[in-house]
Amino acid sequence: IVCLSMEGGAAASTPAALPYYVAFSQLLGLTLVAMTGAWLGLYRGGIAWESDLQFNAHPLCMVIGLVFLQGDALLVYRVFRNEAKRTTKVLHGLLHVFALVIALVGLVAVFDYHRKKGYTDLYSLHSWCGILVFVLYLVQWLAGFSFFLFPGAPFSLRSRYRPQHIFFGATIFLLSVGTALLGLKEALLFNLGDKYSAFEPEGVLANVLGLLLACFGGAVLYILTRADWKRPSQAEEQALSMDFKTLTEGDSPGSQ
Amino acid sequence: IVCLSMEGGAAASTPAALPYYVAFSQLLGLTLVAMTGAWLGLYRGGIAWESDLQFNAHPLCMVIGLVFLQGDALLVYRVFRNEAKRTTKVLHGLLHVFALVIALVGLVAVFDYHRKKGYTDLYSLHSWCGILVFVLYLVQWLAGFSFFLFPGAPFSLRSRYRPQHIFFGATIFLLSVGTALLGLKEALLFNLGDKYSAFEPEGVLANVLGLLLACFGGAVLYILTRADWKRPSQAEEQALSMDFKTLTEGDSPGSQ
């Protein structure tokens, strides 16, 4: 029942079904990104920064950053369950940085496009949810960095914050998926109008894209919440880990 | 650490903060229902079955049934943690029946309205997600009833199905919230058009309603997933429960 887990050690085994679920989630995620590209390329004229096509950078960046990469960042602790915790932690933080930077490009794209066109900013539910997601994501990243990567946070504080970090991480990811769905819906109603109800190919493609978004969110959530796929618990690691080097540096060995 | 838990007994104590979080979630849920009513009453002409106002029964029924009641059904095991498990189980099933019936009325309302108006059915992402939610909800209810309420399912089968039931229950609830957001967005873009970007009161009210929907979903998820707020674990109950009456009836005492 108890797995010995040391920095750099690989004592815990990988559950048999986990790799298949992870592979399935990645297939969903990549299909999602490809289909977003296909939608923008086939029906929305493609992407270019210095033109009206600048808007199209927004959905693509958001799907890559705040959906695909954010989702994968959450899965890092399940996928690399046998790697050293510090390595996994850094990869988790890095994926979130990439996601944040790509999302920032997506955010600039839409504000810049609105400014050039003279459109009103931030009136829709999609935009309100989007700003909420972005602010929460930034705060979560800064809090995560301060507690878990920056050395010096006491072990007790890390233990108390960890469940909150995990809950809000999952919630922000789900809210990102929801916000993407709202944005997709907005784009469809703006662009297609009455043609949407005539089952035009673009409408059907975009509906399938929406279902894929929801499925990717569900797949990540499933892998994340399966109790027997979690890394060995904090208490066990704390009790069994023997890495005095990190201990003396003020970094608890069992910290995530 | 181990709590004695017997049918009808009240050995486990309630965590100090839980009632406040539950109260907050209920406040959010009731505000959500009231605000949906206010939106439909103030800006959409109210509700009547035999007229064009039949459509308005759809959002109200869905918010009451598939958001508020479904969410509360998930919370039953946290709120009534000291009640007999069978009582809690029946209440959980009943709340889901109410939610299902109210959602069915909401579903009939929109299909009937579409038929009278000659509108196309099931072309939008909202409707695809809605049908998916409804089918999954029905299957989940039937599976839950067969495994947990109908006597005779072996204990091992119940134990294996329980985590799946909980995961899919939470996922269907979140998908319901997402579908409601898509529907709200659709209604706003259809009804307000250009006025949406002029920050008309209806648009702002509906945006706040959307944020409330997301917050209610988040609050239910938080209460549901907090590890220290769960009922005492299955294994402990199984080992400690002494209710031979239900055992001989083929119903495992620790079953949920």
Automatic annotation (TrEMBL), chains A, B:
Coiled coil: none
Needed co-factor(s): heme b
Topology in membrane: Multi-pass membrane protein
Entry's localization field: Cytoplasmic vesicle, Secretory vesicle, Chromaffin granule membrane
GO MF terms held by the record: metal ion binding; oxidoreductase activity
Transmembrane residue ranges: 20-42, 62-80, 92-111, 131-153, 165-184, 204-224
Domain Cytochrome b561 positions: 24-225
Record protein name field: Transmembrane ascorbate-dependent reductase CYB561
Reactions catalysed: monodehydro-L-ascorbate radical(out) + L-ascorbate(in) = monodehydro-L-ascorbate radical(in) + L-ascorbate(out)
Superkingdom of source: Eukaryota
GO-annotated cellular components: chromaffin granule membrane; lysosomal membrane
Keywords assigned by UniProt, alphabetized: Cytoplasmic vesicle, Electron transport, Heme, Iron, Membrane, Metal-binding, Translocase, Transmembrane, Transmembrane helix, Transport
Pfam families the record matches: Cytochrom_B561 (PF03188)
Function: Transmembrane reductase that uses ascorbate as an electron donor in the cytoplasm and transfers electrons across membranes to reduce monodehydro-L-ascorbate radical in the lumen of secretory vesicles. It is therefore involved the regeneration and homeostasis within secretory vesicles of ascorbate which in turn provides reducing equivalents needed to support the activity of intravesicular enzymes.
